[in-house]
Design goal:
heterodimer; A: 335 residues; alpha/beta; 8-stranded mixed beta sheet; 4-stranded antiparallel beta sheet; 12 strands; 34% helix; disordered C terminus; B: 345 residues; mainly alpha; MetI-like fold; 2 domains; 16 helices; 0% strand; globular
Chain lengths: 335, 345
């Protein structure tokens, strides 16, 4: 993989949230790389920092959130330090689908107003007339398989069903996503049958338009099907990454293992065990490896030293002291 | 054009129609309360009107003329039918026709009210959006202080302060009245600004405008400070919502995001508060009109209250009620236009 192909690179990113009394140290040195046409998935429990990561990429963190260290490069140029470039990228390179379709459309504007304002900045230099933009908007809505496009364009969000709204949100994201699509749990708050339709739609569009994709999800089957590379996040850190199939079949990090075991299965009669303990308290995160208080294999070193991501096999990296250097042979067989 | 026509037919069919009926009913309720109050107050209106030295048979005939010997419900009927014909009776003190008096004084008060409302709305939106879009900025901090000061200090204190500063010490603006005494403006509508334009008297127009500034500013400040804070906090809340952040994520300039996508949903909560504040200008105007010697209906009302002039009081209270009802209907229409969820229901 040569440097030129790299589309987006997140380098050692630290993000804090400030409340009145506390500082929440959420992202703790996250690095990530995506090249053209690649599809990566981010897996992790709620509050692991997945959404924070995506929002930092587009520079839309809430005002309390602050990037304290690290950099985000798009095609080699920083998005953090060059606001003009960030706006350019937001307009015509990266699009984002938000978590909750019911909350991501403005209740007092029509779908048409939403799309036109987005298209106006996307095609700022084209000198398009409004009728041209409307026909582009119509095309976009047809692409996301919305029926009766005329009516949808003139509707307010509350007049559309959840699935239709998410399609509109996808259409908006597609307007600017010419290279990279960020999808933050795109099926939350939708019912199961619609979830599947939406995912197929995203899959089809990404393939057709040859977009790169960062997909955040809890749905293991979905990740297995849609992405090449999988990143597992815990407590604001990437603890394991590599080839998606490999990780889902042979996870290495104790957290990934436990996470995969606790996923409910239709074929099993029992409910999964779950992972004991709570997600880390970001105000005062555990020292060393942030997972050590919940880890059944915790050693002394885990409390003292933050494990580095080490290469275990081709396309498989893990951040865990169990696998560092000589211990590999002994504990490699896992749980 | 067709869209506008549709909008109005929709208004007529459902929402506004219902609201108007409700407003009408509340006016009827108000009239009942006022009527009851006027009758509960001890004392004989006929005797009060004619004075202690009038002979008993004259007073008796006057009582019959006022229907005072009929049952209350019949009295209410007569009173109401008089009301519909615009007859509010004769002032018990000046023996002038109350409706004629009110018609004479009302335009001055309405002019003051409208001018105050305009200052209030413009000020609220400018201050609220600037500080809401830039929370923590210098303007935001200044507004916070201004809001506390504005809310705690009542309008009549502002009135005195402004009078002292701008008329007495600085001499920039006139202290009392609607227009300078040397100017004669023929009465057409009763609204000084409109009358001066109609008669083409530019100097008088400017003069009238100068007279309006201080009283309306002192009336506007308190509510403006409060409303600007409400707008600010609801803007701050909306800016963090996904449905606003979405637009930022598409590289739409922050100004557009803030002034359009965050402002419109924020106004929904503000408009009803604003409506109530604008309607209550007339109540606050009671003191301010006294201070600025403004020949309006509020000053008329105060004089009537001090003299226990029952018919005049009833007339003034009815006018105040009517203004509340009208402003509330306007608020309903505005909400109807702003919020599609109400419009399409």
């Amino acid at each position: 993989m040569s440097e030129i192909e790299t589309l987006l690179e997140v380098k050692d990113l630290y993000v804090n949230y400030k409340s009145y009394w506390y500082i929440y140290k959420v992202l703790n040195g996250v690095s990530l790389k995506i090249s053209k046409g690649e599809k990566i998935g981010i897996l992790g429990e709620s509050g692991a920092g997945k959404t924070t990561l995506l929002k930092s990429i587009l520079g839309i963190l809430p005002p309390q959130g602050r990037i304290v260290k690290g950099d985000i490069l798009y095609k080699g140029r920083s998005l953090i330090h060059d606001k003009k470039y960030l706006n350019e990228v937001r307009r015509s390179s990266i699009g984002m689908i938000f978590q909750d379709p019911l909350a991501s459309l403005n209740p007092v504007f029509t779908v048409k107003e939403h799309l036109l304002d987005v298209l106006k900045v996307v095609y700022k230099d084209h000198n398009y007339k409004e009728s041209d933009l409307i026909s582009i908007a119509t095309e976009l809505l047809k692409e996301v398989m919305l029926p009766d496009v005329e009516r949808v364009l003139n509707s307010y969000p509350f007049q559309l069903s959840g699935g239709m709204r998410q399609r509109v949100v996808i259409a908006m994201a597609l307007a600017s996503a010419k290279e990279l699509l960020l999808a933050d749990e795109p099926t939350t708050n939708l019912d199961v049958t619609i979830q599947d339709q939406i995912l197929r739609l995203i899959e089809r569009l990404v393939n057709e338009k040859n977009l790169s994709l960062i997909l955040v999800s809890h749905a293991l089957g979905l990740l297995f099907r849609m992405v090449n590379t999988l990143y597992v996040m815990y407590g604001g850190e990437i603890i394991e990454y590599g080839d998606a199939r490999k990780i889902l079949k042979e996870p290495l990090h104790p957290y990934t293992k436990m996470l995969l075991i606790s996923a409910p299965r239709l074929t099993s009669s029992k409910i999964g065990e779950g992972i004991k303990g709570n997600p880390p308290d970001y105000r005062n995160p555990p020292s060393g490896c942030r997972f050590h208080p919940r880890c059944p294999f915790a050693m002394d070193i885990c409390k003292k030293e933050k494990p580095k991501l080490i290469r275990i096999g081709p396309d498989h990296y893990v951040a865990c002291h169990l696998y560092s250097t000589s211990d590999l042979e002994k504990t490699g067989s896992g749980i | 054009m067709k869209k506008v026509k549709n909008l109005f037919s929709q208004i007529y069919r459902s929402y506004l129609f219902r609201r108007t009926i409700i407003s009408f009913l509340s006016l009827l309720g108000l009239s009942l309360i006022i009527f009851a109050l006027a009758r509960v107050i001890p004392g004989d209106p006929a005797r009060m009107a004619l004075g202690p030295r009038a002979p008993e048979d004259v007073v008796e005939r006057y009582r019959e003329m006022l229907h005072l010997k009929d049952p209350l419900i019949v009295q209410y009927y007569y009173w109401l039918s008089d009301l519909f014909h615009g007859r509010l009776g004769i002032s018990l003190v000046t023996f002038r026709d109350v409706s004629a008096d009110i018609l004479e004084f009302l335009p001055a008060t309405l002019e003051l009210m409208l001018f105050t409302a305009i200052i209030q709305i413009i000020g609220t939106i400018i201050l609220g959006t600037i500080s809401g879009c830039r929370p923590g900025s210098l303007v935001d901090g200044a507004l916070r202080i201004f809001a506390y000061v504005g809310i705690t200090i009542p309008a009549f204190v502002w009135a005195i302060l402004f009078q002292l500063i701008f008329s007495y010490y600085l001499g920039w603006l006139p202290a009392v009245g609607r227009i300078s005494e040397d100017l004669r403006v023929p009465r057409v509508t009763g609204f000084m600004l409109i009358d001066t334009i109609l008669t083409g008297n530019v100097r008088a127009f400017i003069d009238a405008l100068q007279h309006l500034i201080l009283p309306s500013l002192s009336l506007a400040l308190g509510a403006m400070a409060q409303e600007a804070r409400i707008l600010r906090s609801s803007l701050v809340e909306n800016i963090g919502k996904d449905y606003v952040v979405t637009f930022a994520s598409h590289g739409i300039p922050y100004r557009t995001v803030c002034f359009k996508y965050a402002l419109k949903p924020s106004l929904l909560g503000l408009v009803p508060v604003m409506g109530l504040d604008i309607a209550s200008i007339i109540a606050n105007a009671f003191m301010v009109e006294m201070i600025f010697n403004w020949p309006g209906v509020s000053r008329y009302g105060i004089t009537a209250m001090l003299r226990k002039d029952l018919n005049a009081i009833v007339g003034v209270v009815l006018v105040v009620g009517l203004i509340y009802v009208i402003v509330n209907i306007l608020v309903d229409i505005l909400i109807f236009i702003l919020d599609p969820r109400i419009r399409r229901r």
